[in-house]
Design goal:
This protein has about 230 residues and is mainly α. It contains eleven helices and no strands. The N and C termini lie far apart (about 50 Å). Helix 1 packs antiparallel against helix 2 and helix 3 packs antiparallel against helix 4.
């Protein structure tokens, strides 16, 4: 029953996404605001139905498959919203002279999407990941739901498990909560220092120039992590 509800919700979401995609391709965006609002409501319904089915699963394999199912649809949903954002900005700029800021905004929205390295919960990589995420996502997007979705997309393992519940909160509140959890769990300076010391102690004996370079790289990365 729960699975059928998820399937029906996905079908309705797909139909609406295809309708918006077709309208954009045909240049008809006269009522895009209403259609996007409808899309957002359908996605909320899909997420709710997916969660209801997801909660019934028991095996790790089924849970993993269900996660992949959701994130695939979530990614399609984000792409549609990004297409609408780019088109709406361009239309507005046709109606008035472009300022330097608006040109930069269009360039940012139109630039190819950057694939970030997935953060799996290694404290040593936390600050590097967040800097990259802020530069490529947080600074070019104002929508809390979109930023939360991207944060979920680029986390895995312990990191994703820690913030999974924030997707149910949604919006800017859910996004800020997810960031706070990640910082507390993986960005604590003392925790980062402990992991750095552990990593350096666990390294194998230095026997060759390659080993020396590897040790130097590790020490350099550790230093930057401490200074962040």
């Amino acid at each position: 029953m729960a699975k059928q509800g998820r399937t029906n919700a996905k079908r309705a979401l797909t139909i609406q996404m295809n309708f918006i995609r077709q309208s954009l391709a045909e240049g008809d965006i006269s009522s895009y605001a209403d259609e996007v609002n409808k899309l957002k409501e359908l996605f909320k319904d899909f997420k709710s139905k997916w969660q209801a089915y997801h909660d019934t699963l028991g095996s790790e394999e089924d849970i993993e498959t269900s996660d992949e199912y959701f994130y695939k649809e979530q990614d399609n949903y984000i792409k549609i919203l990004e297409l609408v954002s780019v088109r709406s900005v361009k239309v507005k700029q046709e109606e008035k002279p472009q300022s330097g800021f608006s040109k930069d905004l269009i360039a940012a929205l139109s630039m190819p999407k950057v694939e970030l390295e997935t953060f799996k919960g290694d404290p040593i990589k936390y600050h590097q990941f967040m800097k990259s995420f802020d530069s490529n996502v947080d600074c070019v997007c104002d929508d809390g739901n979109l930023k939360l979705t991207r944060l979920m997309q680029y986390t895995a393992g312990l990191a994703k498990d820690a913030i999974r519940g924030c997707s149910l909160i949604g919006g800017d509140k859910g996004y800020q909560q997810a960031r706070s959890i990640l910082e507390t769990r993986f960005g604590n300076p003392h925790l980062v220092t402990e992991h750095i010391i552990h990593e350096l102690r666990q390294r194998r004996q230095v026997r060759s120039p390659v080993d020396i370079q590897s040790l130097a790289d590790g020490a350099s990365n550790a230093l930057w992590s401490c200074l962040t």
